[in-house]
Amino acid sequence: MRLSQPAAGFASRLRARGDEGLVPDASDVAAAHVLVERGLAHPAPVPCAGPHDVTVVVPAYGRPDSLARCLEALAGLTVIVVDDATPDPRALRDVVEAHGATYLRLEVNAGPGAARNAGAAACESRLIAFVDSDCQPVGGWLDLLVAHFADPRVGAAAPRISSTMARTRPEAPARVLDRFEALASSLDMGGDPALVRPGAALGFVPAATLVVRRSAFDQGGFEEGMRVGEDVDLVWRMADAGWHVRYVPSARVVHESRDTWGGWLRQRFDYGTSAGALDRRFPGRLAPLRVSAGNATALGLLTLGRWIPAALSAGTSSALLSRKVIVAGGGPRAAASIGAIGLRSDASSVGHALRREYWPVGLAAVALAPKVPAARIAVALMVAPLVRDWAKQKDQLDPLRYVALRLVADAAYGSGVLVSAWRQRDVGSIKPALRGSSGHVAQRVSGLRDSLSRRRIRAGSTRPR
Q: Bridge partners of 45?
């Protein structure tokens, strides 16, 4: 992508400052906005000390012990707890009253989206913080998130959510599932800040904890007909309406994950079942596999053992891409880097799809691997990224169990997607998408957002509007 001379100059100074970031002067503000809009830099406003004009909405269904821990973490804030028609509400009501929160009950169980909407309707504050009853925010979380609303374009901000196990015996040693969830929670979006939007490196954030601007939320709220995936739907509608949704990993929240294997698998499966409804609302956005035509050809030839044709196909694709990059102002080195990153990214995407939406094919590859070379390559594409992930945090769990649990978790999610497609009688959520071999340079460039992508634009503290 091209930057204007002022933007390029500011980007160079920002890169030179590294993680320290810098405060843009008056002449740099426009350049800073360009970098933030493109996801190349991220604002790092000074945390706003409270009190804040914010109301916390906690949807709840049963689990009074979890709710008590949640409300303890929210002490000192204005909190509305929405009981989503728990059959016997007495225990929940007692917990709410003991913590000085407001209790609101729905007479019919309508799901978390409807419960959040009901709580939001009872709020009068400019900001609303949605916190699930099995979440416990860590000190300072709200100060960090509220600071981002000084930018009038920000409609929502989300913290990093890590997992813990809610055990009845806290002194007991952590089980395998505990340790795995600490490494690979489905709610943990990683340690890098991001501008969240469809098609970006980070395409959504969960609503397990999410702070929203009231004026942005009132444009639609949560889709009450969706029991799962309603958070993705909200974030995408906000982004489509022009609002910024920011992921702020410095703000931390702990989530109590499922305490049984069956509950854990069911949760992963349920997440996958949202794909059909989301594809119906946002056609084409959920393609499980997006690769360039050239790289797809190269990878296909590679699995067939046709090494020379595979290399020629990859080389042709890279040459076409290089020409476009050079025309756009990049040098041969940048073109080669983008081509290599594109091929690696597409190979990783194939492995990802074989573990999830196409897991029956992946399972067949595992069964055939001892005898079929092509199957061995497919297995390598599936497993190699998991081994790399394990190597970054290997102290928690051994590689065999980590890889095995990742495969099981991905297959559970993929099963949900497949069931959803069958129920909807629509293959949109499982249909792959091909890109032109020389097109979509912007998507390839996303892989080159190395040091600059983590740079912080420092800003002063101002109140949300």
A: 459
Q: Is 282 a domain residue?
A: no
Instruction: Answer whether residue 303 shows pLDDT above 90.
Output: no
Q: What is the pLDDT of residue 345?
A: 80
Is residue 272, in this structure, part of any structural domain at all?
A: no
Q: What is the pLDDT of residue 394?
A: 67
Clarify whether residues 79 and 169 are in a common domain: yes
Q: Band of the pLDDT at 164, cuts 50, 70, 90?
A: confident
Same-domain status, 223 and 367: no
Q: Is 268 contained in some domain?
A: no
Report yes or no on 173 lying in a domain.
yes
Q: Are residues 22 and 83 in the same domain?
A: no
What pLDDT is recorded for position 54?
Answer: 97
Global pTM reads 0.83
Report the number of distinct structural domains present in the chain: 3
